[in-house]
Design brief:
The structure is a homodimer of 339-residue chains.
Chain A lengths: L2 E7 L12 E7 L7 E10 L4 H4 L17 E11 L9 E7 L3 E5 L4 E2 L16 H14 L6 E5 L6 H10 L3 E6 L2 H10 L4 E4 L5 H8 L4 E6 L3 H8 L2 E9 L13 E3 L2 H7 L2 E4 L9 H14 L6 E5 L4 H9 L6 E5 L1 H5 L2
Parallel strand pairs in A: 8-9, 8-11, 9-10, 11-12, 12-14, 15-16
Antiparallel strand pairs in A: 1-2, 3-4, 3-6, 3-16, 4-5, 5-7
Helix pairs in contact in A: 2-3, 2-8, 5-6
């Protein structure tokens, strides 16, 4: 019988996670029960929000306990099915273990059809990150043509799609990211109007040039200093969609920053936190439109692929070090191909 | 000829304003030009937002220069009219000088009819503060029956009306204020469900008792520590209306506080700054409804009256020391009654 490897939380990270926080545990491949299927992982997704599940205490995502198997969005193949809707060989996605194999309640899986695209797009531009960008721009920011929209972590899985959807809405789009390669990517390949490399520019000063008419919409993936700088440029009735705060995820305590509520009174701006999960009844709408845009070439995307399940923790930690351009995934299939 | 006294800004305040920042200047009573009227002040309004006009630099209200006459909402009588719409003896309200007499463009005045109520209500419950409460609750917070609504500066001109409108909407209402007398007023007289005296309670702890189901709507008049405490109790999809930040108005620099955007992601709450002036097209609706509520006894109100124009600066400074219950006005008419 084949062995199965899966990652468990070895200990709660202190600050930025490292290798010692993760244990790769070997065991038997699990057996699917009634109405369950066994899925062999092809790609798994690492996402910043997972850091929040590693800490004790309340969050919007239930915290993992030490010893718990880590889970996230996975694309894989059905290798055994006890459910009439799925056959062996079907490609599915769901929230599954960071593992070679996982058993899943078939009702929590969705069939994946990505046409000529690699199945991993179901974890990125056509998955949760793409839908997050879609609802954040379409529903939360809801910009008018001609508006200036700023997005942080602009070259990431969510930010890169945010900027392109805002461009499709006729906006001037400014992206903030942490390397020249990322700025080149968003301006030259994705068509953003301007990019600011926060690692070598004062963001507030750079925004005065890049957004000369001020900021009407801000899609915030990062929080912290970068967000403080953008707040200095908010226009009257500006809208801020708070999606993530990656700059703060590794902080154990609440951090201090300049108070922003006075700015909101001056500008009558609104700030709204949102979670893509709240839009579940409209996922089909988002997926359909994103797929059309990708097919038409209106939305381009990149993936950064780490090879091998054993490298999932490094890929995850890399998110906080700004290593990925586009969606960071881990390719797992190569592991069992040789087994 | 009668003399006229008016206040000018003597110097920009450093921190909390004091007497030296104001000069009472005597001169002739001005002559109204074509289509203008001369108004003799009965009551003038002092409001926290005026502090912002005393500082240099941009704000939503145009800054006053040193030497400028201070202005604000005034109720007074027309004593000379060059405009067909106004006769001598009419009572009017408008944005006029802190003075015994002021000349006004008649187009910027509104006739005041307060029935059996003292004319000063046009500066309070039936004026800008009442309308601020109305739009802040009705449009920005828009609470459902059963929601818990918290308001800071709860015994003030705006807060006291906010809480009563929220009660009319079927909400549980918790007020935060700075003295036992204020807490007694809002709970015993105005019908708030609970009150927290921030001067002798830890607000975050007290809210756990006073708002056991969390906070669905927060009307913020103060900012700073009190607002930080309320943010710890925001429910999923909570709404925050940012009306004023009186705790911060006397700070010259941006102050630091705990970062709140992570809370917004967790709760998917929204925070919106608003200014009553943006609702000008709907002032009549607000005035009509507020007048009905006052007439029915659904909304009660108090005023704190300072006597004599010369006491306007003290009344203004008192706002920042929490001296007033209900609307703080200055009665000016007694001055000329004896002249």
């Amino acid at each position: 019988m084949a062995t199965n490897r899966q990652f468990v939380l070895a200990q709660r990270p202190d600050g930025v996670p490292d290798d010692e926080d993760f244990d790769l545990v070997e065991g038997d491949v699990p057996e699917p029960g009634p109405r369950e299927v066994l899925v062999r992982t092809r790609y798994l997704s690492v996402d910043p929000y997972m850091r929040d599940r590693m800490r004790e205490g309340e969050s919007y995502a239930e915290p993992w306990d030490v010893g718990d198997v880590l889970r996230g969005a996975v694309v894989g193949d059905v290798v055994e099915s006890n459910h009439p809707d799925y056959d062996e060989g079907d490609t599915v996605t769901g929230n599954l273990a960071w593992a070679d194999y996982a058993v899943a309640d078939a009702d929590n899986l969705v069939a994946v059809e990505t046409g000529e695209l690699r199945e991993s797009v179901a974890l990125g531009v056509l998955g949760m990150p793409g839908r997050t960008a879609y609802f954040g721009v379409t529903d939360v920011l809801d910009p008018d043509p001609g508006d200036t929209v700023v997005v942080s972590a602009a070259a990431g899985a969510v930010g890169s799609v945010v900027g392109q959807i805002a461009k499709l809405n006729g906006c001037r789009v400014v992206g903030i990211a942490g390397s020249d390669a990322k700025i080149e990517y968003i301006t030259d390949e994705l068509g953003f109007d301007a990019g600011i490399n926060y690692s070598d520019r004062n963001v507030a000063e750079a925004l005065a040039e890049a957004a000369p008419d001020g900021v009407d919409g801000y899609f915030d993936n990062v929080g912290g200093d970068i967000t403080d700088a953008v707040f200095e440029h908010l226009n009257v009735r500006a809208s801020v969609a708070v999606c993530g705060q990656i700059a703060l995820y590794n902080e154990e305590d609440v951090t201090m920053g300049p108070r922003k509520l006075p700015t909101l009174v001056e500008t009558r701006a609104s700030v709204e936190g949102f979670l893509v999960g709240d839009y579940a009844p409209r996922f089909e709408e988002a997926s359909r439109r994103l797929a059309q845009w990708v097919q038409n070439g209106d939305i381009e995307f990149r993936e950064t692929v780490a090879d091998g399940l054993e490298n999932a923790p490094d890929a995850f930690v890399g998110l906080f070090e700004g290593e990925n351009i586009g969606k960071q995934v881990v390719r797992v299939e190569s592991e069992f191909d040789s087994s």
